[in-house]
Design a protein that fits this description.
The complex is a heterodimer of chains A (about 110) and B (about 150). Chain A has about 110 residues and is an all-beta fold. In chain A, about 0% of the residues lie in helices and about 55% in strands. Chain A is elongated and about 60 Å long. In chain B, strands 1, 3, 5, 6, 8 and 9 form a six-stranded mixed beta sheet that branches. A three-stranded antiparallel beta sheet of chain B has the order 2-4-7, with no helix packed on it. The chains are: A mainly beta (about 110), B alpha+beta (about 150).
């Protein structure tokens, strides 16, 4: 699962910074059928967690009401330089992961 | 003018008038059993109040497969006063529970943007759970031209 994650590379301590996540995924609702008329099973990214230096700062639990190629924007407080880690999993058990580093000054 | 002549009846009417807004408030978010139980699961039966949540979503959406929205909650996000979670409900969707977002310590401004599917025109609900145990909500009507799943695709 390809993902695009945008995190400001530099931030000042205490700033509220925007994190944007876009993951390529069909977010299959389970209500569609293929060309042969057989139904396509539901398969959505049901959970995405964002950890900042090991601690979970944000978590999304999603259903079939989230559009294909889910996009999320949320905010965290820049506390210390370090690593932001994103982990997600879909109904089929396929996991994805991405990490970025952030430098916090001040 | 008869109500002023019968004291007992008058008191009962005033009492009824005072209760009415609370009943109306509960009804404002109530739509179906599925939505009621979803809200109940979030609030645990605590009252859901209108306010403190801003739900920005277009009033007219051309494509129900992808409707952009933004939720902003009025909260200082301090350790003692912060948003614990934000929930999105689309009452007319086959599965009304769209998504839930949970904030840990270190979360920033309580604002979330995403894109959702809408199966037809409906009043979308955003619910915020605050650390003081209160629950706040906003609703926004969206007219959908082409519904997600109108042709089962």
């Amino acid at each position: 699962m390809a993902a695009r994650i945008s995190v400001p590379q530099n931030a000042r301590r205490g700033d509220s910074i925007e994190i944007r996540v876009a993951i390529q995924h069909p977010m299959e609702t389970g209500y569609r059928t293929d060309d042969n008329g057989t139904s396509i099973p539901k398969n959505v990214i049901n959970k995405l967690a964002c950890r900042y230096n090991g601690a979970e700062v944000f978590r999304a639990e999603m259903g079939s009401g989230i559009s294909a190629n889910p996009y999320l924007s949320f905010f965290i407080i820049a506390a210390n330089s370090g690593e932001l880690r994103f982990d997600w999993v879909d109904d089929a058990g396929v996991t994805g992961s991405e990490r970025t580093s952030i430098i916090v000054a001040g | 003018m008869k109500i002023f002549l019968h004291r007992r009846g008058f008191i009962a009417r005033i009492a009824a008038l005072m209760v009415l807004p609370f009943v109306a408030q509960r009804r404002a978010f109530a739509q179906s059993e599925a939505v009621d139980s979803l809200i109940e699961k979030i609030t645990g039966g605590a009252p859901l109040q209108r306010g403190r949540v801003k739900l920005e979503i277009p009033t007219l959406a051309d494509n129900g497969n992808s409707v952009s929205l933004r939720v902003v909650v009025d909260s200082p996000m301090t350790p003692s006063n912060h948003v614990k979670s934000i929930h999105l409900i689309a009452p007319k969707n086959p599965r009304p529970g769209v998504a839930s977002f949970f904030y840990g310590a270190g979360a920033g401004r309580p604002q979330i943007s995403t894109r959702i599917r809408l199966s037809g025109s409906q009043g979308v609900i955003a619910v915020a759970a605050l650390s003081d145990g209160s629950f706040w909500a906003a609703t926004a009507e969206v007219a959908v031209t082409v519904s997600a799943c109108w042709d089962a695709s």
